[in-house]
Design goal:
Layout (H helix, E strand, L loop, with lengths): L6 H8 L3 H9 L6 H14 L5 H8 L4 E5 L9 H17 L3 E5 L4 H14 L4 E5 L6 H8 L4 E4 L11 E4 L1 H14 L5 E5 L5 H16 L8 E3 L4 H12 L7 E4 L2 H11 L4 E5 L3 H6 L2 E4 L2 H16 L8 E4 L2 E3 L5
Parallel strand pairs: 1-2, 1-3, 3-4, 4-5, 5-11, 6-7, 6-8, 8-9, 9-10
Antiparallel strand pairs: 10-12
Helix pairs in contact: 1-2, 1-3, 3-5, 5-13, 6-7, 8-9, 10-11
Length: 327
Amino acid sequence: MAEKVTIATVAARAQVSRQTVSNVLNSPQLVREETRRRVEEAIATLGYRINQAARQMRTGRSQLLAVRIEPTRDGINGSVLDRFLHGLTFAAAAAGYRVMLYTADDDGDEIKTFDNLLASYDLDGFVLTGTDHGDVRTFWLAERGVQFVTFGRPWDEPERHSWVDVDNADGTAQATRRLIDTGHRRIGFIGWPSGSGVGDDRREGWQRTMKAHDLDPTGLDRGAADGIAQGAECARDLLTTAEPPTAFVCASDSLALGALQAAGGRTAVIGFDDTPVAQAIGLTSVSQPLPEAAARCIDLLIDHLDGHPVGTTQVLLEPSLMIRTTA
């Protein structure tokens, strides 16, 4: 029979005191980040199971958080949030929390779901994804005193609530600089229609970098709904202009795959999100630090549940460019 894993076992593995393990489980703000991470890794490795009933009596919490499952769309870029959810679930478990998943068709439907979930379950808080201008979900939760953090910025008022996000503009700036450094001067951008917070941010990084290198982006920008067919249509449109681009920066890997098809290997292409498809076909793409983003979301939400910090906290993470055969 396997030996029971206790707090003492975890403490020995992490080379800390039992009190430190207890603090990580119940008052993580008291523990230095490096030490807390070491204890969380020991908890995950050993499979330590917290007595949830006893902990709920001590803290007055259910240790239950909720997050929405996004539609799979074309099955390519939908994998991004799948990876985020895996990271979120792992980070929550390491901190002694569980994650409840729910679905919703749109923001209005999600608010109805909030109401039903809060009436049916003793939820401690929410992690929201897919933020946009004037996000009504955050106003609804804030007005009711429900704790939440978002993976994505409140684009209208950046300091209105706590959030974790990836610097989308920096990602497309890295992609554009890569193409400039390899000799390209006519660099097209294929993104989404204007008005999307994330999409506009990715477009801005390309545009700003072009101008910083004295390159004119005028006429090199196309926008469409996300998808391979849409990316191909935008690329064909740009390639038939009087001075066609020799390279494309795309707001997603789906759009980039379409651009690759339309260009037939004649132009360099860089995508965004570094999906498994991009890795499989050798597409150069911008990678988001999703496990870190998920862990920081959990950290922030637990901090707020513990009453610290009192104000809001904003975390902006840097993406990285994964260079492969297409650029």
